[in-house]
Amino acid sequence: MSTVTQIKSKPRRFNWRAIFFERPTKPYVHPYLGGTLLGIVLFLAFFITGNGLGSSGGVNRIVVFIEDLVAPEHVDRTAYLLKMAGGGVNPLDDWIVFVTVGAVIGGFLSGWWHGRLKIETNKGPRITVRQRWALAFIGGAIMGYGARLARGCTSGQALSGGATLSAGSWALMFAIFGGAYALAYFLRKVWN
Prior knowledge:
Blueprint: H1 16-21, H2 31-49, H3 56-70, H4 72-77, H5 79-85, H6 95-113, H7 129-149, H8 154-163, H9 167-191
Helix pairs in contact: 3-6, 8-9
């Protein structure tokens, strides 16, 4: 007499974590190839749209959009904000917003495609995660404020402006790198 054992197979569950975070990691693109591709993208941006690349302007307009939802009277009283969102002007109706959103989506897709999506905090051994985030926030705020003062960041001024040989853009680029190297001396122990 034989017994038949029936093994029930478990239903397959949708594993979103494996789809996004457990892809095989591919090597980085060679830096010269990456620089060449970036140059082609910049050239095509100028050729097709008449504008270069940038990001801080798009982030700025998104912040102004939120600010206009919360405090429209303040936006209508501030000259800097008035031209972007005063009255019935929509601050999101600008090419730089689409470039910024496209860069975020493209970066996410590239990270996913190359198996580099993960949630982590890169830091040195001498600081905590909380300190690292505080330093990142302070540095980002200073960089964002400086980018608005200079009317562009490393992509808008240094990359796009530098490609058109704008003297102001080259001055900004040297100021950014010089400032970063000077500050790195004092913060080097945080990373080592």
